[in-house]
Write the structure tokens for this entry.
Amino acid sequence: MATIPNSAAAFRHTTVAVSIPPRRTIRASSSLPRRQLITGLTAVSLTATCPLANAQQSWGTRSLIWDTFIAPKLSPEEASDRIHQTAAGLHELRSMLEAKAWKYVLVYIRLKQKYLDKDMKNAMKLVPEARRKAYVETANRVVDNMDELDYYVRNPKIYESYVYYEKMLKSIDELAAFLV
């Protein structure tokens, strides 16, 4: 049998001196104002850039569960007003798309989808019987375009998200025109 020579003996080990800086301790009392400052700045920046914080659109900032199951149902006129507010809010979404703030756009779209589903059904009572078929087709187009926009924002594709954003704006404006 052949013997295997000890190959570790050929290597030399050198020691390198490394200076480690002393550890700094952070006290809980000094970090509390820092946390409040960061939280406050984050809240201010989000309210300044996010259309959710508009005073006109105070709906949707509570819990969706509260608005779905506990809060009283909206009248068709209130649902129509909320659809108009949603259309105006979606027009303001362009700046977030241009900034590529995909997460905020996605949250905003999904919140609006939840409310629009109820509101479109509720506001259909205001549409005359002769125009209901066209209203339903337009409402379906709004839902389809919002779903496509949701998909292209979730998998960030810039060109497609702009295309479906424009299609969604056109279809929601048509829907709002039915409710004038």
Q: What stands out?
A: The chain is about 65% helix and 0% strand. Residues 68 and 117 are 11 Å apart (CA to CA). Residues 46-56 have pLDDT under 50 and may be disordered. The longest helix spans residues 132-154.
